[in-house]
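Complex record, two chains
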Amino acid sequence: MAKPTTSERARRLIALMGHLTQDATYRVEDLARAVGATPAELTADLEALSMCGTDELDPYSMVPIMIEDGILEVFGPLPALSDPVRLSSAEATALAAALQTVGFGAHEPLVTKILSAASAGFDASALEHTVRAAIATHESSVFASLADAAQGARVVEIEHVRGGAHDPSVRQIEPATLFAQRGAWYVTAWCRRAEEWRTFRVDRIRAAHETGEQFDPGAHATPLGDPTAFDARGLPVATLRFAETEPYLEREWPGSRPIDGGEGSDTLVEVPYGGTAWIARRVVARLGRVEVVQPAELRAAVAALAHHEQAALPI
Amino acid sequence: MTDAIERIVNLALFFADARGTVTAEQARAQVAGYPADQDEAAFIRMFERDKDDLRKAGLTILADDEGNYRLDRTATFSAPIDLDAGETAAIRTVSAALADDPSFPYAADLRLALAKVAPHIDAPRADAMARLADESPERQGDDVATLSAATAAHKRVTFGYTNTGGGSGEHEVEPYGLFLHDGRWYLVGRDISKDEMRTYTVSRMVRVSRNPSAPKTPDFEQPEDFDIALFIRLPFQFGPSSQRFEAHLRFDSSAAWRASILSAGRGTLKTEGAEVLWTVEARSTTAVLRFALENGPGLSVAGPPELVSALSVGLAAAEVLHG
């Protein structure tokens, strides 16, 4: 990590000062994490802050803090800058862009509320006309419910529509981690129905309501490694043949890999899949340019789905 | 000797504690950290830099023509924001995820923003992570940071670019906006030599550079009616405008809740009983049929007749192939 500039260090301290309350104590480690510093960096800067004041000759005008054993103690009122400083234009831009990614647009009440704390130079609507970081295709309220429940260790009942499925399933989950990957947000949770860890795509959750029940976050052994939108371990594998007119793109078939054995300009690919309905629908959507070589039951599922869709056409 | 960071914080405290206006000379005399033996020009340069740093931190420092300075307290300080539990959790979760995402170009500012607005500065970190861009996330993040700063400052940028056909060239562009779509960042701007609006994939750029001359003087004016949303397209909206047609897709009652999500603000949605009819511009028959099928069941093609016929032919081919 690059060494922070003096300007960045000063900004960190000014952001922190609005939170420092007389007679309160804080763990330097927590404060450092909040402002993106190492504990050692922040300790040095807080020691510098303890030397600051409105009059260097008057000890009562100095910032009344002391740091010992990783603990910051505030032993008096701050001489000035005791109120929260507004968000700079760059900070407001960062926060608005971040909220866009989870579905909160410029006119959502949360964004309006947050950006009321921005400096006068910031225009949320102007930002929305020039930067769009929105990867979310879900309702912002669903994300907020899941985030709140995860942090409070509370059980959530969700209505989830699996890819390729028609009807929602209702499940009680213990949400653990929210993460963004491959252009969508997901929640990893202990699913009480499946009795195992599951990952749900947030835009497939039609509704999320807390049940009012607390859960023990340590009750189930957590999955190893970083959460992932698609875990191919243990899944069945289909072999697909891509015609020359249908380019194979790994991004469109998570976990897949080309294999030898294609005829002419065809491409053979192995694709792990979690549900027959999901992969059958993706193959049918290629309208004859991708063929399931095996397994046979998936071939049959594709044929049946194509027939069903044909029968439903308004012709 | 006073550390530079002490001098900057002392100056902030000096402005915040002052009643009425103050001058640079008063700051020099009263703020610990300005060297006594410093010549006037060096002091003014240091004082200006320090004020710029305080403005970056969110302080609004006003100056008049006589060289008097005043902290605008209303513009500088905000009342604590009253966030409910869900709002706080959403902000903390997305901030925790993106602050460590190398492809999010505003991570450092995001941390400081959260530090300012969060009700409890020392709350535990939310369990979240993100990779907004999945191709070369570090490089995309760095390049988007450069492009974003240039967009905000209205400065031209130059970069090498390899297009989808494999052709490479150097480009000089007036950057108007950026958007993220399906794991990739895109830049929209006016290509100077071609004198036309273009959309560039950031991951295809190399040597991204902002015009370094006259950094505080804009190189161009942003068109007043520019809206980045108009450049964000659905997968079936790419292609020549000559192939443009209007597609009608229907969400049945089980899928109607997804209409506003999947349409992403493009086209029009019309409620018909428990169903929703989506009328949207398309430029590729193949792509719009794929979109409809992949996002089913519950989403079907309602028209025009040529589109339904193309779907019928394709479904028959898929059925025969697997029969």
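Note: The first strand of chain B starts at residue 22 and ends at 23.
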